[in-house]
């Protein structure tokens, strides 16, 4: 259910919602998202998940 809510709230593609949901479940381990998809990066920023954009 969390993935569905993330997909709707952040206008993500299905697999991006699953990735973000997994990152949120691992948040206590301080995961880092490596991604160049701006929608997913923006959602990660809003959820306070660290990220690396390899295209920057």
Q: Could you outline the blueprint of secondary structure elements for this entry?
A:
Elements lengths: L1 H9 L3 H12 L6 E3 L3 H9 L3 E3 L4
Parallel strand pairs: 1-2
Helix pairs in contact: 1-2
Describe the protein's architecture and organization.
It is a single chain. The chain is mainly alpha-helical. The chain has one domain. It is 54% helix and 11% strand. It has three helices and two strands. The chain has a two-stranded parallel sheet with strand order 1-2. β1, α3 and β2 form a beta-alpha-beta unit. α1 packs across α2. It is globular. The relative contact order is 0.21. The model has no long low-confidence stretch (mean pLDDT 95).
Work out the helix count.
Answer: 3
Radius of gyration over all CA atoms, rounded: 10 Å
Order of helices and strands: HHEHE
Question: Using DSSP, what is the number of strands?
Answer: 2
The overall pLDDT average reads 95
Unreliable spans are none
What are its keywords?
56 residues, mainly alpha, two-stranded parallel sheet, 3 helices, 54% helix, 11% strand
Concise structural overview:
Helices cover 54% and strands 11% of the residues. It has 56 residues and is mostly helical. β1 (32-34), α3 (38-46) and β2 form a beta-alpha-beta unit.
């Amino acid at each position: 259910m969390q993935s569905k809510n993330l997909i709707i709230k952040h206008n993500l593609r299905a697999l991006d919602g699953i990735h973000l949901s997994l990152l949120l479940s691992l948040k206590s381990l301080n995961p880092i998202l490596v991604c160049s998809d701006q929608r997913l990066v923006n959602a990660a920023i809003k959820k306070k998940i660290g990220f690396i954009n390899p295209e920057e």
